[in-house]
Specification:
The complex is a heterodimer. In chain A, about 40% of the residues lie in helices and about 20% in strands. Chain A contains 15 helices and 11 strands. Chain A has helices at about 20-35, 50-55, 60-65, 85-95, 115-125, 140-155, 160-175, 185-190, 195-200, 225-235, 260-275, 290-300, 310-315, 330-335, 345-355; strands spanning about 5-10, 45, 75-80, 105-110, 200-205, 205-210, 215-225, 240-245, 285, 370-375, 380-390. In chain A, strand 5 and strand 6 form a beta hairpin. Chain B folds into 2 domains: about 1-35; about 40-110, OB fold (Dihydrolipoamide Acetyltransferase, E2P), CATH 2.40.50. Chain B is built from no helices and 8 strands. Chain B has strands at about 5-10, 15, 30-35, 40-50, 60-70, 75-80, 90-100, 105-110. In chain B, the strands form 2 sheets. Chain B has a 5-stranded mixed barrel with strand order 4-5-6-8-7. A 3-stranded antiparallel β-sheet of chain B has the order 2-1-3, with no helix packed on it. In chain B, a hairpin with a 5-residue loop joins strand 1 (about 5-10) and strand 2 (about 15). Classes of the chains: A alpha/beta, B mainly beta. The interface between A and B is medium-sized, with 36 and 33 residues. The structure holds zinc ion.
């Protein structure tokens, strides 16, 4: 297999965007072409979850490749729920590594604001088990709520720990001009003060409003290419060095110990093994914090901390910028936003900026290895990526 | 009897599955016999959901995961004012969701 490098990145703000779905995807794609200095590609992979249902548009690959005036290059859409983004990057990786293509563009795009927030949540809930979960009214927040309660009772995680994740990621997002929520929050405002219960009502007890990511529109793009192409273009060399994926039972109740996220553990272990790194080598990580509890648990499952000790590391400040292993420097899904199909590409975008040294005020000093976890379903299909700074 | 409220026992190794699957998760066998699920069990976890899917006409919905006595686990609705993890619950089959297309029956639990 050939080495695969990231030669261009582009992103839109993750927020409510008043443009058609394809134009949002095109914006990030054009930025990535300009960043790379490329005017042609061999293939386009579009990551998206909701086009067919939310936007009433299918075959996004065909639409976007033409809108970019890049025909007759091949194009298709990859759908893998909230892990669509990293799945599309994996597909692009395979295309370049195999020798099939020299330059592959991966664009993740979603436009959820076409429908209201409850309808958006109901749409995302279509990924739950239709017979054993969905008919009961199970949504992603409700699976996360039941998971959080088990974790609290087993490991002593408290609402205060969850709030610490939110406060940290909102703080990180203040330095990300593309983040959806750029608002400083405090423990007083969301948990302790007299107005806390009004500011931060329950969504899915014990999870509150500030434990849940916003529903966002947005797009992000990565252009992957061979070493020869990358060297000619002259950008700082960032290699996609590890790709791992694992699955778990569709219905959460079927897991032997439902407090384990075995697909996160398996995907990250495979990605790190492929890259030849261990958890302590990782300089910066983007973990899929659609709910605050997930950042804590994923930080354990990928091996940064022992099982049941992620919240203690958080308390000690180890996961903020300047800490031992900064997590979600972009603001994470929590504050940067969660345009579902675009999220995995957005995570990769942040890691590439960090490894290039282009992350501005949120730059992690001397970042060499970045790891992402893109969590599909409620942990039943997880894709993890490792990026390595070369030279 | 609706398919979503039956247990599926592997006809070879006798492992119980809920919901149904095409191949046994223990031995790979493809034949199953169905049987009614046990109705009583222990509540493992729960949540009170405040933001409901649009077709639910109630202010909140309480959902939980129950370990059925001598059976599999199941996700169901709770009609319990103050649920607690570890409490005994007793289930019955009733209407859990009505949408534009269908009325769905499923497991509803009350305090035992
Ligand atoms: Zn069997």
């Amino acid at each position: 297999m050939r080495d695969v490098f990231v030669v261009g990145v582009g992103i839109t703000s993750f927020t409510r965007l008043e443009y058609p779905l394809i134009e949002i995807g095109a914006f990030a794609s054009v930025r990535a072409m300009l960043d790379a200095g490329l005017d042609r590609i061999d293939h386009l992979y579009v990551a998206n979850m909701g086009g067919g249902r939310v936007n009433n548009q299918t075959a996004l690959g065909s639409a976007l490749i033409d809108h970019l005036s890049l025909c007759p290059a091949g194009a298709e859409t990859i759908e893998n729920g909230p892990a669509s983004g990293a799945s599309a990057i994996k597909t692009g990786y395979m295309a370049v590594a195999s020798g099939m293509h020299d330059v592959a563009m991966v664009t993740g795009v979603e436009r959820m604001s076409e429908v209201n927030n409850l309808e958006a949540t109901d749409f995302v809930a279509t990924l739950t088990h239709p017979l054993a979960e969905n008919i009961y009214g199970v949504t992603l927040p409700s699976l996360a709520g039941m998971f959080t309660r088990m974790y609290m009772e087993k490991y002593g995680v408290t609402s205060r720990h969850l709030a610490m994740v939110a406060i940290k990621n909102h703080q990180h997002a203040l330095h990300n001009p593309f983040a959806h929520v750029r608002q400083q929050i405090t423990m007083d405002g969301i948990l302790d003060g007299p107005d806390a219960m009004t500011n931060n009502p329950f969504v899915s007890d014990p999870l509150r409003f500030f434990d849940c990511c916003p529903v966002s529109d947005g797009a992000a793009c990565l252009i992957l290419a061979t070493g020869d192409v990358a060297k000619k273009l002259g950008k700082p060399l960032v290699r996609l060095s590890g790709v791992g994926q694992a699955t778990d039972t569709h219905a959460v109740h079927e897991r032997e110990d439902p407090t384990n996220l075995l697909a996160v553990r398996g995907a990250a272990a495979k990605a790190m093994a492929m890259a030849g790194v261990k958890p302590s080598d990782v300089s910066v990580a983007e973990l899929h914090d659609a709910f605050t509890i997930l950042e804590i648990v994923e930080s354990e499952e990928v091996g940064f901390f022992k099982k049941g000790e992620g919240h203690l590391a958080l308390e000690r400040g180890l996961t903020k910028i300047g800490g031992q292993i900064p997590i979600n420097t972009s603001g994470g899904l929590k504050a940067k936003g969660h345009p579902v199909g675009a999220t995995g590409v957005g995570q990769a975008h942040e890691l590439v900026l960090q490894l290039r040294g282009e992350a501005g005020k949120r730059q992690v000093t001397n970042a060499k290895i970045g790891l992402s976890v893109n969590f599909g379903g409620f942990g039943n299909n997880v894709v993890s990526l490792v990026f390595t700074k070369e030279g | 009897m609706e398919r979503n409220i039956l247990g599926y026992r592997c006809s070879k190794c006798e492992r119980m599955h809920y919901p149904n699957r095409a191949r046994c998760s223990a031995c790979g066998n493809i034949d199953f016999t169905t049987e009614p699920l046990p109705k009583n069990g222990v509540l493992l976890t729960y949540t009170v959901l405040y933001n409901l899917p649009p077709d639910f006409d109630v202010p909140t919905l309480t959902l939980g995961i129950v370990q059925l006595d001598g059976g599999p686990r199941i996700t169901g609705q709770l009609r319990i004012d103050e649920p607690k993890s570890g409490m005994r619950v007793q289930g019955h089959i009733g209407v859990v969701r009505k949408d534009n297309y269908k009325t769905h029956n499923g497991m509803i639990f009350e305090a035992a």
